[in-house]
Design a protein that fits this description.
14 helices, single chain, alpha/beta, elongated
Amino acid sequence: MDSLDLEVLTRARAWLADGHRVMLATVARTWGSSPRPPGALLALRDDGRAVGSVSGGCIEDDLMHRLRHEGLPAQPQAVSYGVTADEARRFGLPCGGTLQLVLEPLHSPAPLDELLARLSRGELVTRRLDLASGRATMSAGHADQGPHFDGSTLISVFGPRYRLLLIGAGQLSASLARIAATLDFAVTVCDPREEYSDEWSVPGTTLTRDMPDDVVMAMKPDARTAVIALTHDPKLDDLALMEALKSPAFYVAALGSRHNNDVRRERLREFDLNDAQIERLHGPAGLYIGSRTPAEIAVSIAAELVAMKNGAAADTLLNVRDAKLALDIAADTLSSCAVK
């Protein structure tokens, strides 16, 4: 889950423990362009203080106005913004954007205590809120679940952030790790080579010197996990890819030219991977943006990573199926500069 949304739940629980009443606003559904995705949270305190976000600010202002003049709703309720062009302009929504929120009154910290306790244990949790009764229940979540609202029941999914495993601790990995951290990925870096791992200094990441295939198996990649091989060393990259391509990981990619990745696919067939598994490999990794430097290549890889995370077809975004040929130049440039 987004770290901002975890902060919303934590702050809301603290406010409730201090005796305040709180209204929790959840983005339930969106149509067209929208500033925040379904599941995004905003907590409003009874004195008008707020944490979180459901828009660029205008909807938050309107919700604060409602809270001050109408108080907390007695029961959970759904409200919509941006239904008309005038409302879209008034609330600062993108052209054609419509946003539906569920507003839930909270009067004690008890509803959030169990949720936060389970999240602290690293659990994935599904929370169901019945609008008619106001009753919320929790159960174990699944990695392929997402938020859903059918008009009467709001399903929210809370739990571990998306994970990213980078094979290689070189300059490109450092640039990509920093970007991924800002995108709220939990980043693990694997490199058994001392000359690289000893120099790793990116804060907020986890470094391991174990062999890549052992690390992948230990992580047990799920549908919220991505694995990217960046070492240019088949002995390291292929071991990780061999295990990652068998897993439900949503994005598995490798650095290198198109030719080198075609050769890599042939090698992977020797590990008894089938055609469907090998087809999942994104290689060369990244979208074409004319990148040449390690930092620019990191941006291109991060862009494809986000596209896959959000279910966007990479070749639809930037005609990647043809343009990706140009990544050969970037990969060769990187290799010649000895950036591992």
